[in-house]
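FAQ

Q: What does a record look like?
A: Structure on top, sequence underneath. For example:
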């Protein structure tokens, strides 16, 4: 995924499914470096992780 699509997802009112290593995640923010994003697992756990945006995939 790229910066532009991450920004679109963050500003979208729709629920866009994104996965990281096959696991569904919420994208919390695009980090200042423009190469990473902060995400957390969908569900009750709120643990946040920083990942490379190129490793995120949009599910359709």
């Amino acid at each position: 995924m790229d910066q532009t699509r991450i920004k679109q997802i963050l500003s979208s009112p729709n629920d866009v499914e994104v996965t990281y290593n096959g696991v569904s995640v919420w994208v919390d923010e695009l980090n200042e470096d423009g190469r990473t994003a902060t995400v957390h697992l969908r569900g009750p756990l709120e643990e946040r992780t920083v990942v490379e945006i190129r490793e995120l995939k949009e599910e359709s």
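Q: Is there anything notable about this one?
A: Helices lie at 3-11.
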